[in-house]
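FAQ: What does a ligand-bound record look like?

Like this one, built around heme C:
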Amino acid sequence: MKVLFAILGLTALLAASDGAALFKKCAACHGANGEKKALGKSHVIKNMSHDEIVSALKGYQDGTYGAAMKALMKGQVATLKDADIEAIADYIKK
Ligand code: HEC
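The answer part, i.e. the structure of the complex:
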């Protein structure tokens, strides 16, 4: 039984920081590879560096980053953990 719980726990951990899965809901606006200007407004995020993406997403969370549509992005990233943000940035840069 313990082993089963260990496996379940590990799966949950991996799933929590799976950049590809996390990016699915972003792709609707940013494009499958982050190649679009979301709603015609955002930067093309695949042209941003890994660190720029991470600091933008953390900035949307704490309200220190963004332009006219930052409230929309705040909603998108509100529940992401730091590990999720790293995983998303890794995925976009692949
Ligand atoms: C409903 C459409 C939509 C969705 C879904 C969405 N975004 Fe955005 N995103 C935008 C818009 C619009 C902006 C520009 C916001 C602003 O004015 O600061 C933006 C900005 C950004 C930026 C900063 C780019 C810049 O212009 O400085 C990053 C990085 C980003 N989004 C990543 C993501 C990630 C990662 C997700 C998924 C967790 C996501 N977005 C989901 C519309 C969306």
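Follow-up question: can I read anything off the structure? Yes, for example: The pocket of heme C is lined by residues 25-26, 28-30, 38-39, 41-43, 45, 53, 56-57, 66-70, 72-73, 76-77, 88 (CB under 6 Å).
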